[in-house]
Design goal:
alpha+beta; 4-stranded mixed β-sheet
């Protein structure tokens, strides 16, 4: 599978394969009990399913039923419904595709695992509902499993649950599960559990869709000093999320959850923008909620339609930013629609891949209100790395002279002086008569060791109106260094003898000494010639 293929394109490839092989697949279903080549059939279907992703489990049988299995990979609840929704129209009266294992509707069946057979009507359970969360704690007792090790009992029971009540109901409505040592009062057969859960935990008797369920969460943002350069999401204090493991992985600096989606060609991202801290928080929240709704309606597409470019995963509010979490099925299609949709936004809206070191990008034009103010905010909290990523996300034709200066400042502040010089050279024609440009160019020259070359730039910056004490101080340091070099040249030319107990000039490294030492030069290299001043 091509790792660069989007989830949308993978789904199309799967259905093209299915359409090309529908007759053969139908024959497999109709003759499954008579086939002497079951392994070959499984291998054939696995080849087609691998167009979506490797190691994706499935069942085929019944009356032309094709069922994918989540098999504990809960990220698939957000992916497989899109696949099944795209079943070609000409096969809808013949085939039934399911995105996860369905319940049996109370049907009794035999189950074998760890060398032990059991019928589901012999599996006894009791359930304690939680009205607030619409979940239940479960206890189970299976006489036939009394000799199994505890971990094997739990493993077998969870597998049996998925087969009996279905993966969606088990995922959404079950809380704690415990094994009972004896048959307890109030226990009933597992065959009755699915209906009990629907009656007691599901509104309107409808099994909840895991991809539509939100969880609320709260956080305590770190103080400004601890936040450092990792600003995105660190300021969050409250939010909602459909897939909470993604949040935990991001906070822990891991990308495992991100990779679970990218293995299918999908991509979790989040959008964020800085809001006015003086505005009412409720107004800001309502504004963000409205933006989420419109993104879903006009950009992402209706959930379950099979035409989505992605879906909402949640949203959050930070002390400085508002956040919208997304799962993209087709990043290119989303970006094209989103940039058009957001072009009228009053905010500068950024996106970031949903892991700490993920790529950042800009969805709105940099001319929106607050762009330079946001860069200044980042500068004030020493988030220079963020500034660099933001400006580098801009197309080249959007980097004007002022943004280039801001880019150079951030590069200087991250010790990238050589790159700073390269960036400033790109606007030399306009910069040579600009005080700020000359200051930054001189600063970069000085800290790349080209101190003498920095003098004309710093002098010109001051002549053009730069009255910052730092500029004058750096110029004085550069001139002092140059004076010392000139003095040494005169000393050598005059062949003035040195004290043999002191370090010879040619062996002395002046590079850092002049910037950091308060000692007189003669303490190290002898007394300078008369009438020479340092």
């Amino acid at each position: 599978m091509n790792q660069g293929t989007s989830f949308t394109e993978r789904a199309k490839q799967f259905w093209r394969w299915f359409s090309a092989n529908e007759e053969k697949l139908s024959d497999i279903v109709q003759n499954r009990n008579h086939s002497d080549n079951g392994e070959a059939a499984v291998a054939f279907i696995s080849e087609g399913v691998s167009l979506l992703a490797e190691e994706l489990h499935f069942n085929i049988g019944g009356d032309h039923e094709f069922t994918f299995s989540v098999d504990g990979k809960y990220a698939l609840f957000f992916l497989l419904p899109y696949v099944t929704a795209n079943l070609p129209e000409q096969y809808r009266d013949k085939w039934n595709f399911f995105p996860c294992m369905q319940g049996t509707g109370g049907h009794n069946f035999g189950f074998r695992m760890y060398g032990t057979n059991v019928n589901t009507d012999h599996v006894m359970v009791s359930a304690a509902p939680d009205e607030e969360s619409k979940t239940a704690d479960l206890r189970f007792y299976i006489k036939e499993w009394e000799s199994l090790e505890e971990k094997d009992s739990y493993n077998a029971f969870y597998t049996l649950l998925d087969l009996s009540i279905g993966e969606a109901l088990a995922h959404v409505c079950l809380n704690n599960v415990e094994k009972a040592e004896i048959l307890e009062e109030g226990m009933f057969p597992l065959t009755e559990l699915e209906q009990w859960m629907i009656d007691n935990l599901c509104e309107d008797g409808k099994i909840p869709d895991p991809a539509e369920r939100y969880f609320g969460y709260e956080k305590t943002p770190p103080d400004e000093e601890a936040a450092g350069d990792d600003l995105p999401r660190q300021d969050i204090f409250v939010g909602i999320a459909k897939y909470t493991p993604l949040l935990s992985c991001y906070d822990d600096g891991e990308d495992d959850c991100y990779q679970k989606f990218t293995d299918f060609g999908a991509k979790p991202v989040f959008l964020y923008y800085f809001y006015d801290n003086e505005a009412d928080r409720n107004d800001i929240l309502n504004e963000r909620n409205d933006l989420m709704d419109k993104l879903e309606e006009e950009v992402l597409g209706k959930l379950g339609s099979g035409r989505e470019t992605g879906l909402l995963l949640g949203g959050a509010m930070g002390e400085n930013c508002a956040y919208i979490d997304l799962l993209l099925y087709d990043e290119e299609a989303f970006m094209e629609k989103a940039k058009t949709f957001l072009s009228s936004s009053p905010y500068m809206i950024f996106g970031k891949e949903f892991y700490r070191d993920g790529r950042e990008f800009l969805l709105t034009d940099h001319a929106v209100s607050g762009f330079t103010e946001r860069l200044q905010q980042l500068h004030e909290v020493d988030a220079h790395g963020e500034i660099i990523k933001i400006i580098e996300a801009l197309p080249d034709d959007k980097r004007d002279f002022d943004l280039t200066n801001l880019y150079a400042r951030a590069l200087n502040n991250t010790g990238q002086e050589e790159k700073t010089l390269e960036v400033l050279e790109s606007v030399r024609e306009k910069g040579e008569n600009d005080a700020l440009w000359n200051w930054r160019y001189g600063y970069a020259l000085y800290y790349t060791g080209r101190k003498a070359e920095s003098i004309p730039c710093l002098e010109k910056a001051i002549a053009l109106g730069d009255d910052h004490p730092e500029t004058a101080e750096l110029l004085e340091m550069a001139r002092a260094y140059q004076a010392k070099i000139e003095l040494e040249a005169k000393r050598r030319a005059a062949k003035i003898p040195r004290d043999p107990n002191k370090v010879p000039f040619e062996d002395f490294d002046f590079t850092n000494f002049w910037d950091n030492s308060d000692y007189a030069l003669e303490e190290y290299v002898g007394t300078p010639p008369a009438n020479e001043q340092f």
